[in-house]
Structure prediction request, 360 residues.
Amino acid sequence: MRVFNFAAGPATLPAEVLQQARDELLDWQGGGMSVLEVSHRGKPFVACAQEAEQLLRELLAIPAGYRVLFLQGGATGQFAAIPLNLAGAGDTLDYVNTGAWSKKAITEARRFNPRLNVVADEDASRYTTMPAAATLRATPGAAYFHYTANETIGGVEFPYIPDSGAVPLVADMSSNILSRPLDVSRFALIYAGAQKNIGPAGLVLVIVREDLLGRARPGTPSIWDYQAMAADGSMLNTPPTFAWYLAGLVFRWLKAQGGLAAIEVRNRAKAALLYEAIESSGFYRNPVARECRSRMNVPFILAQPELDKTFLAEARTAGLVNLEGHRSVGGMRASIYNAMPPEGVQALVAFMRDFERRHG
Prediction:
């Protein structure tokens, strides 16, 4: 029996996508082989990769002048690749610190660029808030301005796109990409690990403005050089072919749902249902400021923390799994990405209300 999987990543995938992958696993496109076994240079897989990119371009309305790269190393690899490609060793970088993933990006970037400015830091609120839009100011002449659009662990999400002026804007969108329409033209570079809203772990997307290619500093490994990867269609090395294939199936599924405008309506409804259940209760609490609560990752705390293990055990019995909060913050966390069906959130809310009735 399939459970409702609320994991933060690797996360649940659409059942229709998994069923198609299952049906095609032994014989893909009538070739008598699995997609796991075919050459990435062969015509069938090249066509599969091109279709995935085209679907992504349609979904996000990516304008001309941007390259889409399908890479490895996850978002963590991009923490290093971005300064190596977009900045010289002596350049200034701007970063916004809104939580665990921002901090990791800052730590890695400082290894390459000591002149790194943290232009806003939400540490005082224990990362339960976002900086007000009017307070963010890019440093004149900075190589780029980086922010994390959604913090998976803390459950905070930017309700706006920062205005970095003439400074190129870079965003880590690993946990909220494709969850709503997006004006890609506002960005110099967007990157996203696949294991939340795109597909399985092992793939990372980079959408980069073409004028930023060819700037990698001397000594940058070719595998991290955007120009080198773009020139070879993201196949300078053997790419994660199965993850790329599955990402294409997810993109096709998203298009069949009505695209990002339709998926946003569904995501809003799911998040509203869960937050309302928390807010209307005296038993559960969400620590995040209302104006920046994530639609993708919803942390909540029980009024009686000694019941945490009981809550998780009973939830598992009810088919609701991976609700543990991150080990650094504790409590609970429900990740409700695109592929989480409304029925999953409805089942969680019903369980939460019943648990409160019995234990509150």
About this structure: The chain is about 35% helix and 15% strand.
